[in-house]
Design goal:
Blueprint lengths: L8 H14 L7 H20 L7 H11 L8 H4 L2 H8 L7 H11 L3 H4 L4
């Protein structure tokens, strides 16, 4: 087992290639231990160099609407009126506290996700 820290993009690509080879190693073998260690190293490198940011509130609403197969009209009760839903989703109107409360319940999204800037 020749595991080393991932410091460069080349190291990262090499680690991914090696992990692909040993990914299905039998548990308890040196290759399995190497795969576990490589997985941790790759994860840390990706967190630092390829961070995944949360979507902005409007994007989060749109994603959840798609997941739940909802239309804009399905948000009228939570947001208040067809034109208001359209204005919010097109970023022409900010979400109010009342809208955020309703949307957290209707769409099962966290309030902290919906209070972000956009």
């Amino acid at each position: 087992m020749n595991v080393k820290l991932i410091k460069t993009e080349t190291d990262y690509q090499n680690a991914l290639s090696r992990l692909e080879v040993i990914f299905d190693a039998k548990s308890g073998t040196p290759e399995s231990d190497e795969a576990d260690i490589l997985g941790l190293l790759i994860d840390e490198y990706e967190k630092k160099h390829y961070p995944i940011t949360s979507p902005d509130p409007i994007e989060a609403i749109k994603i959840r609407m798609e997941e739940m197969q909802l239309k804009q009209t399905d948000l009228i009760e939570a947001i208040g009126g067809k034109s208001r839903v359209s204005e919010v989703l097109s970023r022409k109107r900010k979400l109010t506290v009342g809208m955020i409360r309703s949307l957290t319940t209707k769409l099962n999204l966290s309030a902290s996700l919906l209070i972000g800037e956009y």
